[in-house]
Design goal:
The complex is a heterodimer of chains A (522) and B (298). Chain A has 522 residues and is of the alpha+beta class. Helix content of chain A is 29%, strand content 23%. In chain A, 52% of the residues are buried. The longest helix of chain B has 37 residues. The relative contact order of chain B is 0.14.
C-alpha cells in the first residue's frame, strides 16, 4: 500500500516537473468595480476584464489593432463592416462562440444601462449573417470604428440568458446582477475566484484559441490600497508586481537589487469637474446661487492652481502639466493645446473673484477618490490649500472609489477630482464622454453638466469626418471652445510607475492596463 | 487662604505626591501638554489647520532652522501640527471620557440600585459590548455615523462623531465599577435609614451613594483618558478619525506612514513620540492616583 502511494507521488512529481506552474501575485491600488464587461467604463475594471473577455479585435503590446475573435473584415459598403469570425472558439463554460453571441453582446453594450455606449457610437445594427459572419452597420462612414471595437467585449448569449443578466446592472444606481460577480468569456484567463476589494484569482484557460505568449498558470490580484503597505509587500517579496509605485518610493525600489521599475507618461488626463448646471450649488455655503456658473470664478480657480508645485512636490516631476482635456498622442489631438490657458497668478485670481462678487469667498465640498490615482488625496489636499488662498474654503471629502464613482456618476457633487483615459486612443471618446452635453448616449461622465450647443455639434461632426486633417481641426475647435468656457479645469497627465521583481518581464502599457497575456515570469 | 493652602499641603494625597518623583515628573509632562494645548494659538505663529497657511513648496522638509521638527507632506510645520494635534486629541479624549463617565455612572447606579430585570439587562448589554474590542465598537459607531450623515457633513462633524464613538466604546468600565460599589453601599445602614425615612430612590442614589463611589471613578477616568487618546489616535491612523485637513496626532502618524520608505521619517516619528509621552504620563499619573487612593496599600 505504502509503496503504491510513493510510486504515485513520484509519478505525480515527474508529471508536474517539466511544466512547472508559474504563479504571479500582483498588487493594485484599487479593485475592479464589477465583472460585467459592459457596466463600467473604468480603468481597473477594464484591466481585469480584458483577461477574461475579448472583443472582435484586440490591441497588441504596441497598441496596434490585430484580429481576435474576428479573423478578418471587409467593408462591402462604406457603412457596412463584415467580420469573418474565428471558428472553434469556446467560452469558458464550454459553449461554442457564434455570430449570435456577437450580435447579443453589441445589443447589450448599446443598451440603456451600459457604460460602454461611447465605443459603439455610430453603430445602428449588428446582424448575424451566418454562424461565423457578422455585419456591423453604421449610421455614417466611421473611420474610427475599428479603434473602438476592442472595448466591446463578447459575452455568451446562452449564459447571460440562463443567469438573467441580459442587461448590464447599472453601477451608478449600485445595482447588481449575476454578471457583476461571475464571468464567462473566451479570453486567455478564467475567473477562478473573486473576493470583492480583497483579491481576484485568474487561471490560464488551457482551451484558449491562441498560443499564449505568457507563461502564467495562475495570477492573483490583491488590492492593497495604502501605498506604503503596497510597496512594503513588493519590497518584502510578498508580491511579484505592484502598481502604481508611489512616486516618493521610486528611489527605494530602484535601489533594491531584486526589483526593477517601468516608467512612462500615461494618456490619462486628470482634471477638476465643476457643477456648472445647477442653479444652486450643492454642499456649499452659497445659497440660491451657483458661483461655478460664473466663468470668472472658474478662471479664478484655474489661476489659483499652482500645477508646477504639485508636480514638483507631490508627483516628483512624474506628471505632465496640461491645459488640455486629452493627452497628446491620442488620435486627432493637436499638441499645441497642451500649455495651460492662463498662468498661475493668485493676485489675478483674487481680482476675478472680487469682480464676480465673491471677494469674501465661499465654502464648497471637493469630492476626491483616495485609492484610484497616483497620490490622489494629497493632490486634493494641495488643491484645497491653493483654493483657500482665494478664499474658496474647501471641505475635502476623500473616499474610496467604490463610493466615489457612484456618487459623482449620479451627479451628487459640486466639485470633484478625477481623470479619464480614452482607451481606444481616439479623441472622440473623451469629447463624447466628458464634454458633450449629457443626453442619450452622450456625456455619460460629464458630471458637471457642461453644455455648449456649438461644441456638441462640432463633436458629432468629428465622428463622421473621414479626412484626418479636417477631423483634427474639428476636434481642436471643440477643445478650444471648451477651454475658453473652462468647462473643466484640466490639471495634468499622471505618470505610470510599475514596480516588479527582476524575474518578471512585461512591456509598459501607456493606457496603464496591466495585461498578463504579455507577461513572462522566470 | 493660607489655612486652605496648608490643608491642601498636608492632605494625604499631596503628601504622597511630594514623595513620588515619578508622579511629579508625569504631572509636569501632562501639565506641559495641557499648557501647550491651551495656549496653542499663542505659541504657534501660523495655524496649521488653516489651509491658506500651507505652502506646498515647503513640504517634506527635514528638521532644520525655523522648523525644528521638519514639515509634513502639505508643508505644515510639524511642531505646530503636533501642538494643534495634541489640542485636538486632548479635547476629544477629555470630552469622550466625560460623556462615557456620565453614561456609565448613570447606568451603573440604575443597575446596582434597581436590581432585578433592569440590572440584568444593563449588565448583559455591558457583557456583550465587552466581548468586542473597544476599537471595533468605535469603528462601528463611526461607520454608522458616516453612513447616516450626508456627504459633506461627516468632515464637519468629525470631532463630535469621534467623541461619541469613543464614549460609547468606554462606558462599560464605569458602569461595572459603579454597580459593584452601589451593591456594596446599598445594604449599608445609612442607605437603609434613608430608605426607611422615605427618601426617593433617585435621590438616595444621587445624594447618598454617588459621593461614596467617586474615588475609584476618579482613578478610572484618569486611566481612561489615556485609553481615549490612544483610541482616537488609532481611529485617525486608520483614516476614519480626523480628516487630513485638520490632523490629530494619529492622522499625522498615518500621513507619515506613506513616507517611511522614502526617508521622511520625521512626519511619523515626532507625532508618535508626542503620543507616547502624553499617554505614558497620563497612565503613570493614573497609576499613582490608584495607589495613593487605595486604603489597602501603604
Amino acid at each position: 500500500m505504502r509503496k503504491t502511494m510513493i510510486a504515485a507521488l513520484v509519478g505525480m512529481t515527474l508529471l508536474a516537473g517539466p511544466a512547472a506552474a508559474k504563479t504571479l501575485i500582483w498588487a493594485s491600488q484599487d479593485d475592479a468595480a464589477t465583472m460585467d464587461p459592459h457596466a463600467f467604463n473604468h480603468g481597473m475594471t477594464l484591466t481585469v476584464l480584458q483577461h477574461i473577455y475579448e472583443g472582435l479585435v484586440r490591441r497588441d503590446a504596441e497598441m496596434r489593432i490585430e484580429p481576435a475573435l474576428a479573423l478578418s473584415w471587409t467593408q462591402p459598403e462604406p457603412t457596412i463592416w463584415r467580420f469573418a469570425l474565428r471558428p472553434g472558439v469556446k467560452f469558458h463554460d464550454g459553449q461554442p462562440f457564434t455570430a449570435d453571441d456577437v450580435a447579443f453582446s453589441f445589443r447589450r453594450a448599446m443598451s440603456e444601462t451600459s457604460d460602454m455606449k461611447v465605443f459603439a457610437a455610430s453603430i445602428t445594427a449588428v446582424k448575424a449573417v451566418d454562424p461565423l459572419t457578422v455585419d456591423i452597420v453604421t449610421a455614417f462612414p466611421n473611420a474610427a470604428l475599428i479603434q473602438s471595437l476592442p472595448e466591446i467585449r463578447i459575452m455568451s448569449r446562452a449564459w447571460s440568458e440562463q443567469n438573467n443578466a441580459q442587461m448590464p446592472a447599472d453601477l451608478k444606481q449600485s445595482r447588481e446582477n449575476y454578471a457583476t460577480r461571475h464571468a464567462n468569456g473566451t479570453g486567455p484567463f478564467r475567473l477562478k475566484s473573486r473576493d470583492v476589494d480583497v483579491k481576484t484569482v485568474l487561471s490560464a484557460d488551457p482551451g484558449w484559441w491562441d498560443k499564449p505568449r505568457h507563461n502564467i498558470t495562475e495570477a492573483t490580484m490583491v488590492r492593497i490600497a495604502a501605498p506604503a503597505t503596497r510597496i512594503a509587500a513588493l519590497l518584502s517579496g510578498e508580491v511579484d508586481f505592484a502598481y502604481p509605485v508611489p512616486v516618493q518610493d521610486i528611489d527605494r525600489v530602484e535601489k533594491t537589487a531584486s526589483l526593477k521599475l517601468l516608467q512612462g507618461p500615461e494618456i490619462r488626463t486628470m482634471f477638476l469637474a465643476l457643477d456648472v448646471a445647477r442653479d444652486e450649488l450643492l454642499y456649499s455655503t452659497v445659497k440660491g446661487r451657483n458661483p461655478f456658473k460664473d466663468r470668472r470664478v472658474r478662471q479664478a480657480m484655474y489661476q489659483a492652481i499652482d500645477m508646477a508645485a504639485i508636480n514638483a512636490r507631490i508627483m516628483r516631476g512624474t506628471a505632465v502639466p496640461t491645459g488640455n482635456m486629452i493627452a497628446p498622442g491620442v488620435n486627432s489631438v493637436d499638441p499645441a493645446l497642451q500649455p495651460r490657458a492662463w498662468p498661475y497668478d493668485v493676485a489675478a485670481a483674487k481680482a476675478l473673484m472680487a469682480e464676480a462678487g465673491y471677494a469674501e469667498g465661499f465654502g464648497v465640498t471637493l469630492d476626491c477618490p483616495n485609492d484610484r490615482y497616483v497620490n490622489d488625496e494629497r493632490v486634493c489636499q494641495a488643491l484645497a490649500g491653493m483654493l483657500a488662498r482665494i478664499d474658496i474654503k474647501v471641505t475635502l471629502d476623500a473616499m474610496p472609489s467604490s463610493r466615489f464613482f457612484p456618487k459623482i456618476g449620479s451627479k451628487d457633487t459640486s466639485l470633484n477630482f478625477f481623470g479619464y483615459t480614452p482607451v481606444n486612443m481616439d479623441a472622440y471618446n473623451t469629447l463624447s464622454v466628458m464634454i458633450h452635453s449629457q443626453r442619450g448616449d452622450q456625456g455619460q461622465w460629464n458630471v458637471g453638466g457642461y453644455s455648449n450647443a456649438e461644441v456638441d455639434r462640432t463633436i458629432r461632426a468629428s465622428l463622421s469626418e473621414m479626412d484626418p486633417t479636417r477631423r483634427t481641426a474639428l476636434v481642436t475647435k471643440a477643445l478650444t471652445l471648451h477651454r475658453e468656457d473652462i468647462g473643466h479645469i484640466p490639471l495634468y497627465q499622471q505618470g505610470i510607475v510599475w514596480g516588479m521583481k527582476k524575474t518578471v518581464a512585461t512591456p509598459l502599457q501607456i493606457d496603464n492596463r496591466v495585461n498578463l497575456a504579455f507577461f513572462k515570469v522566470d | 487662604m493660607t489655612a486652605l493652602a496648608r490643608r491642601l499641603w498636608d492632605h494625604d494625597l499631596a503628601h504622597a505626591f511630594r514623595h513620588d518623583p515619578l508622579a511629579i515628573l508625569s504631572a509636569i509632562v501632562v501639565a506641559a501638554f495641557l499648557i501647550a494645548a491651551l495656549l496653542a494659538p499663542v505659541i504657534v505663529a501660523k495655524d496649521p489647520f488653516d489651509l491658506r497657511n500651507l505652502d506646498l513648496i515647503e513640504s517634506l522638509l527635514p528638521p532644520g532652522p525655523g522648523r525644528p521638527l521638519g514639515t509634513d507632506d502639505q508643508g505644515r510645520d510639524l511642531l505646530a501640527a503636533i501642538v494643534y494635534g495634541t489640542r485636538l486629541s486632548l479635547v476629544v479624549a477629555v470630552l469622550s471620557v466625560v460623556v462615557s463617565l456620565g453614561l456609565g455612572v448613570t447606568l451603573g447606579l440604575i443597575a446596582g440600585f434597581a436590581g432585578g430585570f433592569l440590572d440584568a439587562f444593563i449588565m448583559r448589554a455591558a457583557d456583550i459590548q465587552l466581548s468586542f474590542p473597544a476599537i471595533l465598537v468605535a469603528l462601528l459607531v463611526d461607520g454608522i455615523a458616516r453612513a447616516a450623515l450626508p456627504g459633506d457633513m461627516h468632515a464637519r462633524f468629525a470631532v463630535p462623531v469621534l467623541i461619541a464613538a469613543i464614549a460609547l466604546s468606554g462606558w462599560v468600565q464605569y458602569a461595572r465599577t459603579v454597580r459593584g460599589l452601589t451593591l456594596a453601599e446599598r445594604s449599608k445602614d445609612y442607605v437603609q435609614s434613608a430608605r426607611v425615612s422615605g427618601v426617593a430612590p433617585a435621590r438616595i442614589a444621587r445624594a447618598h451613594i454617588l459621593p461614596n463611589v467617586t474615588g475609584p471613578l476618579f482613578v478610572l477616568a484618569t486611566v481612561q483618558i489615556a485609553t481615549a487618546i490612544l483610541t482616537e489616535a488609532t481611529l485617525s491612523f486608520l483614516g476614519v478619525g480626523m480628516p487630513p485637513t485638520s490632523p490629530s496626532l494619529g492622522t499625522l502618524v498615518n500621513i507619515g506612514n506613506n513616507y517611511l520608505f522614502s526617508g521622511a521619517w520625521w512626519i511619523s516619528v515626532f507625532p508618535g513620540l508626542a503620543l507616547v509621552m502624553l499617554v505614558l504620563a497620563v497612565n503613570l499619573l493614573g497609576d499613582w492616583l490608584r495607589d495613593a487612593l487605595n486604603p489597602r496599600l501603604g
